[in-house]
């Protein structure tokens, strides 16, 4: 008597890994799924309108959308190669019932590439099942955040965040920017943790990363970008960029080629 191997392996029926390409100015109409979606980009920053709220994730972060969550992508300025991992509700409950941004590692990204190759071959279901199990375990233990770059409507923080995210001030120190505001360091620290769940230095670093990704895709040289962000040496900027994205600027630039 023959048995359906796939039917005996739950992750083959509960997790699907798909890859897509966004072309310049592509927009996906609002939609939702009965399954949960975990989306991340291999070479750029994903931007979504999720139930009226703005979310984004650079290459080292992915967005978890629970089942029946209406969302749409926003127009992109360059080609983006992105991954959608669809997860059955029986597994998705472990990732939460609200949209969240998860930090992902280079190992996770390499694992997804391996799974895509195995899905195309369709010759070793047991091995594919094992890879999907590892993928799910990686997701369950990945650090999660409400947003990659959270915002606040607090009257004290709004003007501060505007200044901290201004590219023309990226080469100015955090202390110099805050010096223009009549508020104590202790109060700002308390507000940032309360409103953003991040320190202002970490928030600003993430704003710099988003700016850097965009400028790299626009053709700015590494030396120019390092100078714009306040680094005296390109190597220091490259180290900073890799720490946040898991890639060097050159690897990011070549990812879509």
UniProtKB/TrEMBL annotation:
SMART domains: HTH_ARAC. GO terms for molecular function: DNA-binding transcription factor activity; sequence-specific DNA binding. It holds the Pfam family HTH_18. Keywords: DNA-binding, Transcription, Transcription regulation. The keyword Transcription regulation applies. Residues 154-255 form the HTH araC/xylS-type domain. InterPro entries: Homeodomain-like_sf, HTH_AraC, HTH_AraC-typ_CS, RmlC_Cupin_sf. This is AraC family transcriptional regulator.
């Amino acid at each position: 008597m023959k048995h359906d191997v796939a039917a005996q392996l739950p992750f083959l029926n509960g997790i699907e890994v798909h890859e897509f390409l966004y072309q310049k100015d592509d927009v996906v109409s609002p939609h939702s799924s009965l399954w949960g979606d975990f989306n991340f980009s291999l070479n750029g920053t994903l931007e979504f309108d999720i139930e009226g709220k703005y979310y984004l994730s650079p290459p080292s972060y992915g967005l978890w959308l629970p089942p029946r969550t209406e969302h749409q992508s926003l127009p992109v300025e360059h080609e983006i190669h992105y991954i959608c991992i669809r997860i059955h509700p029986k597994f998705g409950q472990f990732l939460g019932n609200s949209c969240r941004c998860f930090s992902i590692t280079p190992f996770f990204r390499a694992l997804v590439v391996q799974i895509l190759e195995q899905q195309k071959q369709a010759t070793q279901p047991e091995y594919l099942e094992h890879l999907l199990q590892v993928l799910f375990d990686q997701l369950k233990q990945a650090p999660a955040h409400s947003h990659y770059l959270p915002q606040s409507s607090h009257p004290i923080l709004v003007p501060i965040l505007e200044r901290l995210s201004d590219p023309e001030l990226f080469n100015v120190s955090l202390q110099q920017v805050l010096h223009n505001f009549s508020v104590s360091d202790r109060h700002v620290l308390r507000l940032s943790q309360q409103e953003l769940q991040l320190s202002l230095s970490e928030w600003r670093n993430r704003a710099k990363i988003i700016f850097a990704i965009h400028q790299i895709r626009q053709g700015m040289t590494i030396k120019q970008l390092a100078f714009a962000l306040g680094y005296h040496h390109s190597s220091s900027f490259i180290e900073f960029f890799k720490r946040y994205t898991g890639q060097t600027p050159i690897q990011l630039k070549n990812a879509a080629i």
